């Protein structure tokens, strides 16, 4: 019966090139299947397998989501179908989106049957026909949509995705969709392929050619301009919004262009249009708050920012809320907003918040510049002093004085260990030529200041090396573990190692010994193993005072144990060149000279691939044969 149904279904498919996508909701597949059967469209489960992602990062989600007017229109353009129908189940009924080449329509219907009547009125469904009953249950349809137990039609879809031809899908699905899966990329996809390959000029040329194309091509062209920071992106955004007003991304981009040009009113209007399409977008509400601020409408700016953080707590909206309340003179409200922003900020947003405060003249703007600076580790004392000088009787003066009282404390700096490899065990005493990584702990209350972590190496009072590392950390940081930049003592002797953080420093005296092969191998992450794969040295032995001696002894022992196994004819022949010419590999293994083993490890240090994952026996033999 299943094969008969597929065959009968195929007979009706030649009537059109429309597509019904799976609907969103608990019964989404059965509902979509019912509409597809009535419209003589391919099974929606095929589209679950074959609907392509859009060419840009974020795919449909960047454009507002698949189950939107914009998503439906983009899906129609991406597939090349004459029309695309998709829907989603909501509390109020079934919302349908019908996209054609000329545009997209949307309707919310209390029952699927009313949606079917709407499609009859649109000239798509046969008049006076009932909505069919789905031929398969939801569970089976979902399995087919995931490629499980496929029938011949869905097997063809899986084959197409894997590059084995279109099979039963030829003539059933739009040609553009079939060609895309066969590697014949439409221009929108080709533009992003060129971007991925670094072909900037070719991508720009293709973007220019797509400037008057469909919604997919024009969106792709705009994003190419945006990615490549081509100034044409602003005009492109405005044209895109005018041509496709159902695309929230277009209005979002118009708002960005307006912000960059200082056009607060245009940004506000664009964001209101974007929010009409995506009312739950916390980003749009955040930016709308700023647009209202630019137009001087602080009450609405505050309400928009409050809506943004209710949808998704984010540092930018809280920083904005702090600024708006500070402008109003609301000390407690601004402080609460800034405190929340600081907790959410990972160290990326506060510079803009400080810049926004710098541009204001209200008393609390100066106070909160100091307040934020203190909590992100920037100098705050001059700002607090300037605030007190200008506004000694301000209600916030007590907080400024209290902050100044705790500004004198210097950060604490302590040494945890000195390592050859960051995060590894303490490796003292060090040897000449080794990189020394100091691991330190930093602490200061109330907050750790921003400063450079510096490592210096001295010998007899002379500075031999100095390395610096700027630290980045989120606001409200009071303690931090860090690896200071390494320094290298080039020769044996006594040294002084200094690690400094701002004005705070610690010093450690070092006795540096001669180089060690075992420690050099350890630092490179190379492990010497015998034929059975057992390490010849423990980490503690490798780093210890006798590491090199143990390495050479145990390597020679491993080579001697392996000598009886060297039965291949080539291993018994005298070497024709190199320092061991005239001796066979077998003879060398039987009594390996210490200088030969040492020379082998020196060669490994110059070319770590000689050892790599090999055992020392095979690596040594390969080295001898390659000499």
From TrEMBL:
Family matches, as InterPro entries: TPR-like_helical_dom_sf, TPR_rpt
Pfam families: TPR_16 (PF13432)
PROSITE patterns in alphabetical order: TPR
Nucleotide-binding found in the keyword field: no
Top-rank taxon, per record: Bacteria
Signal peptide boundaries: none
Keywords noted in UniProt: TPR repeat
TPR repeat locations: 248-281, 282-315
Protein name, UniProt field: Tetratricopeptide repeat protein
